[in-house]
From TrEMBL:
Polysaccharide export protein N-terminal domain location: 3-78
GO molecular function: polysaccharide transmembrane transporter activity
Boundaries of every Soluble ligand binding domain copy: 85-138
Domain of life the protein comes from: Bacteria
Entry protein name: Polysaccharide export outer membrane protein
Organismal lineage: Bacteria, Pseudomonadati, Pseudomonadota, Gammaproteobacteria, Lysobacterales
Keywords assigned: Signal
Amino acid sequence: MSAVQPEYRLAPGDLLLFKVFQVDDLERQVRIDQNGHISLPLIGDVKAAGLGVGELEKLVAERYAAGYLQQPQVSVFVQESNGRRVTVTGAVDEPGIYPVIGANLTLQQAIAQAKGVSTVASRGNVIVFRTVNGQKMIARFDLTQIEKGANPDPEIYGGDIVVVYRSDARVWLRTMLELTPLVMVWRAYR
């Protein structure tokens, strides 16, 4: 599966970290409000929702350069993103929709957010569904090979759907163990 992801567009609720090179007093964590705005020292209100990170960096640098700093170098880091969520479903202990926290999320981390695979999971049959530029894509992964280090742990993007399929053999075995009384047969041997 291609690692191509369109630039993330900031959304209300996203938590951002702002840094201005060599101006420590302007370093801030700021959450985008419900109206899509943030407030920064000296420059005040800035519309952030709908912009890419690079666009916001440029806009904030221009605002600081307009009367406060000479050639400011602004960096913005997305620390939490409400707009980036991943669905983890199937044979996991807590299926659900989980936020992509930080810059990167791997397949194993996404499954860990769902409290791991269940006892009936088919570790070799994990499917990731993704839409890239309007085209639906699918990829199959083997968790056992990833855990051994034989295959890389793929990056998971906001909007991805992770499905851990169940193993019919494991379901059958679990059912048999639940339905069959435990019988121990001891035989004498010489």
